[in-house]
Amino acid sequence: MTDFSATRALFDLPPDLIYLDGNSLGPLPKAAPARMEQAMREEWGAMLIGGWNKAGWMEQPRALGDRIGRLIGAEPGHTVVGDTLSIKVFQALAACVEMRPDRRVILSDTGNFPSDLYMAEGLIRMLGGRHELRLVDPEAVEDAITEELAAILITEVDYRTGRRHDMPRLTAKAHAVGALTIWDLAHSAGALPVEVGRGGADFACGCTYKYLNAGPGAPAFIYVAPRHAGRAVPALSGWLGHRAPFAFEPSYRAGDGIDRMRVGTPPVLALAALDAALDVWDTVDMATLRQESLRLTDRFIAGVEAACPELEVVTPREHDRRGSQVSFRHPEGYAAMQALIARGVVGDFRAPDIMRFGVTPLFIDEADIDRAITIIGAVMNERLYDAPLYRTRSAVT
C-alpha cells in the first residue's frame, strides 16, 4: 500500500492552495533544489568537464530511462531520456514509416495533442507529400485501422477531455493488419498503470514535467520494443546516437539498441531534477495510485455536478475510459478558471471551452477535493467570474 500522506509531504506546495494542474505541470519535489545544487556545485563546479565521467552524466539518460521504464511496464534497457516530446514523437513516427515502406497512411485522432499532428505533417512534407495523415474521431479509431496503415499515433489519454483509449486493444488490431503503434504517454506516465511491454507497443514516448513532476521543460523519454531496437532507423542522427560518439567519425553509424534514439547532449541539470522527482515513485504502487485517483475523480465529478449543474462534464464516467483528470465545458470557461485561480483552486483552460482539473493522489486528498467543490460552486453560482480582470487572456492558458 502507498502512504499518500507521506508522498504529499515530499512536495513543496504553497499553503492554502489546491493544486489541480499536475496534469500540466507537476509541483516541485522538495528534494529537487538540493539535488540540482549538488549537480551544479559538486559536479559541474568541482569536476568541470570531468563530470561527464566522474559524475556519470553520459549514462544518466539510460539510467533514468530505466527508472521511468518501471512505471510504464517497459523491459529494462529499452527506454532513454532526452530532448523534447515532439522530437521523440518525430523519431518514433519516422522509424515506423521507414519500417513500412509500402504503406502511406498514418492514423491519429482529432483529440490528439496538436504537436503530435504537427510532427506528422512535417514528416510527410519531408517525404515529398506521398503519405497521408488520416484523422478520425477518438471513438472511431478502432474501426479506422486497416491494412493501408503504416502506423497509428495515439495519445492514450486525451489532453482536453481525459478520455482514455484502450491501447492494448488498438495495438492488437493494428498488428493484425501489419501496422505499427506509437503510444504517447504524456497524460499516462505517472497517472495510471501502463504496460507497454505486455500491451505490445512498438514505440512509446512521453514527457516528465506533468505527473512525473520533473519541472518545466523537463526532458522527454522514448521506448522502443526489443524486437525493433536493433532495426529502427534514427531519422534524427545526432552524435550521441552514434555507435562511437567520441570517435568523431565523419559518417553516422547507429548505436546499439535504445542508444540510437539519443540525439543531443544530455541536459544534465534538468536530469538532476528528474532524478530527484523519480525518488518519490520508489514508494508508490501504481495500482493503489490508480484506485485512489478513480475514487477522488468520482467524488469530484459528483460534487461539482451537484453544486453547479451548468458545468457539463466531458470526462468519461466509466473507470476504464478515464485518465486522472476531470474536464468540464462552459462558455465562460476561461474567465471562470481565472476566478478559481484567484481563489486558490488552480486548474487550467483549453480552447474553446474546456476547464481542466488534474487529480494527483500523490499530493491531492479528499479534503482538497471537497474544498475545491465548494469554491467552484460559489464561483459558478454567484457568477464571480463575470469581471473584466478575468477575461484578459495570458499567453499561457
UniProtKB/TrEMBL annotation:
The keyword DNA-binding does not apply. GO terms for cellular component: cytoplasm. InterPro entries: Kynureninase (IPR010111), PyrdxlP-dep_Trfase (IPR015424), PyrdxlP-dep_Trfase_major (IPR015421), PyrdxlP-dep_Trfase_small (IPR015422). One of its GO terms (molecular function) is pyridoxal phosphate binding. It is an enzyme of class 3 (hydrolase). The modification N6-(pyridoxal phosphate)lysine is found at residue 210. Pathway: Amino-acid degradation; L-kynurenine degradation; L-alanine and anthranilate from L-kynurenine: step 1/1; Cofactor biosynthesis; NAD(+) biosynthesis; quinolinate from L-kynurenine: step 2/3. It comes from the Bacteria. Pyridoxal 5'-phosphate binds at residues 85-86, 113-116, 155, 184, 187, 209, 239, 265. Its cofactor is pyridoxal 5'-phosphate. GO terms for biological process: anthranilate metabolic process; L-kynurenine catabolic process; L-tryptophan catabolic process to kynurenine; NAD+ biosynthetic process; quinolinate biosynthetic process. HAMAP family: Kynureninase. Homodimer. This is Kynureninase. It comes from Rubellimicrobium rubrum.
